[in-house]
Known about the structure:
Distance between the termini: 32 Å
Structural class: alpha/beta
CATH class of the largest domain: Alpha Beta
Number of domains: 2
Radius of gyration: 22 Å
Oligomer: single chain
Bound molecules: guanine, zinc ion
Number of helices: 16
Strand content: 15-25%
CATH topology of the largest domain: TIM Barrel
Number of strands: 17
Amino acid sequence: MTSPTAIASQLVSRAYRGSILHALGKDELAYFADGALLVDAQGVITACGSWTSLKDTLQGVEVIQYQPHQLIVPGFVDTHVHLPQMAVAGCQAPSLLEWLDTHIFAEEARFADADYARAVSEWFLSELLANGTTLASVFLTSHPGASQIAFETAARLGNRVVMGQTLMDRHAPDSLLRPTAQLLAETESLCKQWHGANDGRIQYAWVPRFALTSSEELMSGLGTLRRQFPDVFLHTHLSEQLAEIAAVKAQFPWAHDYTEVYERFGLLGSRTILAHGIHLCDEELDRLKALDASLAHCPSSNFFLKSGRFRLMDVLQRQLRLGLGSDVGAGPALSLLTVMKDAQYMQADTLVPLATLFYLATLGGAEALLQGHRLGNFEPGKEADFVVLDLPVTPVSSRMPEVHPSQDSEALLSRLVYQGHQQWISETFIRGQRVYQRAAIVQD
Length: 444
Ligand code: GUN
Ligand code: ZN
């Protein structure tokens, strides 16, 4: 429980002084080698700039001073991740459909046990914070009880999430299937309880797993719910692997392409988050743009399951809403730092600008989840979600701090993208409150 003194100490305006890097747009960064991030008592950013320009405005403000090897960046946004796959991340299989059958469905079935659901929820949601992820769009399991536990845990730990019960009424083991009407009633009830909870940190999403596990009745029911609750999200998978797409064609012969299946039932719009989209054709991309849907690019997962190469440059050029996703458990780890690197490596012939990768991991993700107006960078008026990173101190830089690349934002960002590691995350803040601090390493 938080003590009264801890609460009082959180109600103080603070200035966080250190190196600060944030994205202003897809191609634009702001960097202050000696900067200050000013946060008011409500956790809202009042200014961000160089220390010299802001230092005279700080009467009565507590100053938190960081070290030269530390860097302050906006919290990372994971636009696609599965809570119940945490324990089986990294378990290989030859294809998506075999991987689901071999590892995933059996693991998700374990969430019928409330103790197991509680333990994994606690582990996953605290690991998000330890990875600097301050906003995540999360799949749960089909169990309403386990879903309830995940929401309660997120509320307790202070996570920002867009999250929902995963809905399946066909083509999965019986233990994970539920009658359509029951699923629709359960998900509506969870939505009513949790959408907007914890001061807006928790938002609800309708989560049909993908077309293959969804009956037309289920998708039609979700279309109705979307009209009834227009500010609730819808999160699903789209066009990930060729065998999956062939099966979708067989199951929905009336659809010209995978996108049309969701389109037919009114599931696509500006609050729709579509994971993968690897094999979308030009026309599908154009339709998704016209519908203002968001894509979640999950390169680590796409490498792991050999799904194919995401058309990153075509998507960026069309200005679709786009964020990055770890897609744990097909992605092996939660760190958006490694996901940025994999997004770069996935493009065979194009060097993706570092600024664009960083944008996608922060502001782009927030925009994909329709929260760019209040999160994603350090513009005044936004909520103070940020991460403090410890860049490694080398034997040379510890003796000669001037060789540390903190004066050069391009070099700094390059190291972040290519070498960044979860262990670099020192502290994580959501709305100005510290929600994670790495334990000090005790040395003899
Ligand atoms: N398609 C349907 N379910 C899943 C899942 O759990 N992970 C991924 N990567 N793709 C899916
Ligand atoms: Zn997924």
